[in-house]
Specification:
The complex is a heterodimer. Chain A is of the alpha/beta class. Helices cover 23% and strands 18% of the residues of chain A. Chain A has a single domain, classed as 3-Layer(bba) Sandwich (FAD/NAD(P)-binding domain). Chain A has 11 helices and 16 strands. In chain A, strand 7 and strand 8 form a beta hairpin. The longest helix of chain A has 20 residues. The radius of gyration of chain A is 22 Å and the shape is globular. The two termini of chain A are 32 Å apart. Chain B has one domain. Helix content of chain B is 49%, strand content 0%. Chain B is built from 7 helices and no strands. In chain B, 32% of the residues are buried. Classes of the chains: A alpha/beta, B mainly alpha. At the A-B interface, helix 5, strand 4, helix 8 and helix 9 of A face helix 4, helix 5 and helix 7 of B.
Chain lengths: 536, 157
């Protein structure tokens, strides 16, 4: 098998966390290599450049890898889950396709056992991450408005918020009448020139890649800086397994398939896994050896277990007044009114809302066709005109508590193009999640009715809603109850680090990318502070 | 030497037969008829039909199955039935529903609602989002004053 010169640090995955770690470690002047199974994206190829921009989100830019089936994708057996896995495989990973809604976890999210008696506390807290949240906001280019009473007061954003729009005003006025919290979201979208990036021009199609470059995917934020600082990024390199020196029990490199499908061995002194909450356990479970027969870093038996998705409910309403439709970033307002625990609601923990401005013309037609709202025949046109650009939606992101039966394993049959076993997902909604979803739907319906909605639609849970892949290599102080320690190092393998969403101890109830990246920067900082004793 | 046929994509044959095209056009005419009131063509318009025929993509297999479902319901080609029978067959198709019909509907609608004439009728500019983008009202964040006045809602640890 061809081999390469050893590197000091080998990072697997170039998405949200891998990019942040690569950039942060670059100032050590170590030899750093990142292996990425996908390739660079060309913004001129993004859907917003063409008339088929809405159609492509069902085809080559679909959020589901099983639908997309690009050469860079691996299949996921999610038949046994009501929520389907979404991701993207490229330089930038799933930040290419995310909506760039960018809240942080709350301080309470790190201490759910102490506060509410459920799950486990994280071994770190919000205030330890706070400087890394701020550093990440600067690198990413975050827009927002300081002073949100849902967060500690020190939180600020580098840029002013995205426009409120018609939709925001209608919903904001309704939320005020109800006395409920709402606020302009932190968004990883520029609202003015920022570090060589142009401001948002309201293409309205943040998901599926930003042709303007206003949305912060890591291929245009961290990677240019990391590469300038000397990091090597090798694309079309799909890692099959992490290899071990059986004498020392330390990781000594990886075996990967190059762009021609040829096996390669890449030696490394430190391995950092950043392949997301599905890809990371898949890789660890596929890295079996005499010393680690149940998969790497898996003495606790918890690799792949405690998968958390964030069950979503979507509630949408139709209004007489014209809304924004797709004429702006879809997400730019949130509410954390029901975020913190209140036992009187019948469930523990809580959820956030993200307000949706509306949808595009084709999406409206397709969804209303599927729901039966849009008739066939002569009535079609008149009804459609009442729906098009007259919709707003509220999506509830529910905290998903860790349960070991929700898990990622290796599929015994399904394999990717290189013959690597595909991940298999087993997941059920808990009773707590069901009650939380029902509460969120009832309150969102109330908010939309207050805003003037004359018709309401509901999806519970959002089937294609597995954007957030968390918890499958959890962080903790107890090696029997966790996979990595409080600074991301594997309990079992002292030169193996995990930095992606799989290390979340609990999920919180917000989009996780900001916290994933702050965690990655925190772990990189810990590694730098401990370089002399990194393997002790 | 004969040239080997190119393998079909994993998601099915992207080409509709002539019979399938006839049924599809008849279905589209029932589904979205032309409207003089709104100055729009029907979904059976030749340009829209041509767009549909080249846009099956990852739904190709589902579209073939949905058209076969329609043929079964119609007892042959939908296009050969009188209008009343066509309406009955389409109502049955919609009542039976299913993922294949959803996929077929998605293709028809995506091609219909990106047609220039239809977009203009809806007050839209027939163009891609980039590079012109859109404008939105900035709004007045003084609307947040009641939220500010209420004060902190985050939970101390």
């Amino acid at each position: 098998m061809p081999s390469h010169e050893p590197v000091d640090v080998l990072i697997i995955g170039s998405g949200a966390s891998g990019a942040a770690v690569a950039w942060s470690l670059a100032d050590t002047k170590m030899k750093i290599l990142c292996l990425e199974q996908g390739d660079w994206q060309n913004p001129t190829d993004y859907p917003s450049n063409g008339r088929d921009w809405e159609a492509r989100q069902f085809n080559d830019m679909a959020t589901s890898p099983n639908r997309r089936q690009l050469w860079s994708d691996y299949p996921v057996n999610d038949d046994n889950s009501p929520i389907k896995v979404l991701n993207f495989n490229a330089v930038g990973g799933s930040t290419i396709l995310y909506a760039a809604h960018y809240p942080r976890l709350h301080p309470s999210d790190f201490k759910v056992k102490s506060l509410d008696g459920v799950a486990d506390d994280w071994p770190i807290d919000y205030h330890q991450l706070e400087p890394f949240f701020a550093e990440n906001d600067r690198m990413t280019g975050v827009s927002g408005l300081a002073g949100d009473p849902a967060y500690p007061p020190q939180k600020t954003s580098p840029m002013e918020p995205l426009p409120m729009g018609r939709s925001g005003r209608i919903l904001g006025e309704a939320m005020n009448r109800l006395g409920w919290h709402w606020w302009p979201s932190d968004c990883a979208v520029t609202t003015r020139e920022y570090e060589g990036r142009a401001p948002c021009i309201n293409l309205g199609h943040c998901i599926a890649g930003c042709a303007q470059g206003a949305k912060a995917s890591t291929d245009i934020t961290y990677w240019p800086a990391a590469i300038r600082a000397g990091v090597e990024l090798r694309t079309r390199a799909r890692v099959r397994e992490i290899t071990i020196d059986n004498a020392t029990g330390m990781a000594n490199g990886v075996i990967y398939y190059d762009r021609d499908g040829v096996e390669q061995f890449q030696p490394a002194h430190v391995v950092v896994v950043a392949a997301n909450g599905i890809g990371t356990p898949r890789l660890l479970l596929n890295s079996k050896s005499e010393r680690f027969p149940n998969g790497l870093a898996n003495s606790s038996g918890l690799v792949g277990k405690n998968l958390m998705f964030h069950p979503y409910a979507s509630v949408w309403g139709y209004f007489n007044e014209e809304t924004d439709g797709n004429r702006g970033p879809p997400l730019s307002l949130w509410s954390h009114e029901f975020y913190e625990s209140d036992q009187s609601r019948g469930f523990v923990r809580g959820y956030s809302w993200q307000f949706g401005r509306g949808v595009g013309a084709i999406m409206e037609a397709q969804q209303s066709f599927a729901s039966g709202r849009l008739p066939w025949g002569a009535e079609h046109h008149a009804v459609y005109r009442k729906l098009h650009n007259h919709r707003m939606n509220i999506a509830a992101i529910c905290e998903d508590l860790p349960e070991e039966h929700n898990r990622v394993t290796l599929d015994p049959v399904l394999k990717d193009a290189n013959g690597i076993p595909a991940p298999k997902i087993d997941y059920t909604l808990s009773e707590n999640s069901n009650r939380m979803l029902d509460h969120a739907i009832a309150r969102a319906t109330e908010a939309l009715r207050e805003a003037g909605a004359w018709d309401i639609g509901v999806e519970k849970p959002i089937r294609n809603g597995g954007w957030h892949l968390l918890g499958t290599a959890r962080m903790g102080s107890d090696p029997t109850r966790s996979v990595v320690n409080d600074w991301g190092r594997s309990h079992d393998v002292k030169n193996l680090f995990i930095v992606d969403g799989s290390i979340f101890t609990t999920s919180g109830g917000v989009n996780p990318t900001s916290t994933i990246q702050a965690l990655a920067l925190y772990i990189a900082d810990q590694m730098k502070q401990r370089l002399a004793t990194l393997f002790d | 030497m004969s040239k080997a046929a190119a393998p079909l994509p994993a998601w099915g044959d992207p080409i509709l037969s002539d019979a399938e095209k006839r049924s599809l056009a008849a279905l589209c005419a029932r589904m979205i008829p032309a409207s003089a009131e709104f100055k729009v063509p029907g979904a059976d318009d030749a340009l829209i039909q041509a767009d549909i025929a080249k846009s099956l993509d990852r739904d190709a297999a589902a579209v073939h199955r949905a058209l076969a479902q329609l043929e079964r319901i119609s007892g042959g080609s939908l296009a050969d039935l009188d209008i009343e029978k066509q309406e009955e067959s389409c109502a049955t198709l919609r009542a039976e529903g299913g993922a294949d019909l959803t996929a077929l509907g998605r293709i028809i609608l995506q091609c219909y609602y990106r047609d220039d004439r239809v977009m203009i009728s809806l007050g839209m500019e027939p163009r891609p989002p980039f590079p012109k983008g859109h404008t939105l009202p900035q709004g007045d964040w003084a609307l947040l004053d009641p939220v500010r006045k209420r004060g902190k809602i985050w939970r101390e640890v």
